């Protein structure tokens, strides 16, 4: 059995939870006028107020003790130094090297990865400058107007989220599109609106074996050629981002048009690498580098700040408090900013693919909860949909509210309404409101929230925000003793899908599965042609 639940800090937290069971967050505020300042912290341009959680100084002290007992500091240093901490894949985990702005060499297995990163980034710069400046043209000599990223998971969610968030910085001539789903409706809808002469495809896949991405990339190439363009046009309309040059060449993209990255970049941690190419094309390479600057500032904070004033550590440990001691099973992400509408989806992969694990690094089954379900929608939309359950439901759902001080638009009245709602929600969730004669109007309160404030949603602060969550997820994985950097759980379904695909193509009914799966496959085979 893993010993996490036996360590003194874990035991102390269990007793502490019992001691706090009759205390409300509201009462903790009444007791201590300094509470808000005490449980807030600023780093890398982000201000985080975590005072609206059921915590006191004792809670934080025990949580930090638990982080220490779990070896968070040593694991963090091991990650930064390029140790192969991703044991099941025998890989280093070095997304921090992609945004290391120190200019220092970083030798891993005898190779200076800092130099490799700089070389690819220089190629990204000339490519972005050429596309944005109009020097890179389509086969018929016209400027590029539309860029389509074809990728899925980490090769889609990060670039898409950032491109949405940083639209105010976008190049006026270029429209970005993202195709991920193997459902043909996805690519069909996008292509319908585009002109092959002015469209550039970025095929993004770490492995370049992902079924969805290759299927979509083939469809895109067929669409280009069907428009009458010759095979030679592919070189002007397709580039690739991958670690697998052989597969890129086999697909028919000249490796001169390929941007490399490395196995030490996990898919869900890859937007800082050439996978960020759509971002760099949209906002320009200087702004892309600002995104890296912001992430690097958070990296320095994470690497250097003491654990008890270290934002990723604090958010991680408060999450562990909710998940392992207060019985939460999910975590809401509520950006009060429409441009961040893809952030919950992005964080879903980051967190759930990283910490959705139930065996430890030593291969033992855990006897405690690990990663929460991550979900969310931007405010104020969520308020008119699922916030009812947050306020009066039976589940405890910790929530992160993310707020921008100064918007890019000039509609100040809108912004004040948005901000007022954000503050009102966290206040209402915490304080509740009592109604003795009408139980349906009773709000128990005591629902925990963090509020994360950015001055402006610019590349620097967005970089810091993303890195904050990356490191939070890392710290939680260390405490739970799991490998946050593999994703074996996605393999079984992929394997079965390949077999079923063949069965769908073969004639006759299928009998090799369970009754339900056989029934569904056979119904599909019978009905697909019958339905007009
Ligand atoms: O199937 C899961 C996964 O491997 C993710 O971890 C990854 O981000 C995604 O698929 C896409 O993989 P690739 O970039 O290799 O196409």
UniProtKB/TrEMBL annotation:
Output the Pfam families linked to this UniProt entry.
PGI
Q: In which pathway does it act?
A: Carbohydrate biosynthesis; gluconeogenesis; Carbohydrate degradation; glycolysis; D-glyceraldehyde 3-phosphate and glycerone phosphate from D-glucose: step 2/4
**Subcellular compartments:** Cytoplasm
Q: Which keywords does the record carry? A: Cytoplasm, Gluconeogenesis, Glycolysis, Isomerase
Role according to the record: Catalyzes the reversible isomerization of glucose-6-phosphate to fructose-6-phosphate.
The record's NCBIfam families line, in alphabetical order, gives:
PRK00179.1
Q: What is the protein name stated in its UniProt record? A: Glucose-6-phosphate isomerase
> What gene name is listed for this protein?
pgi
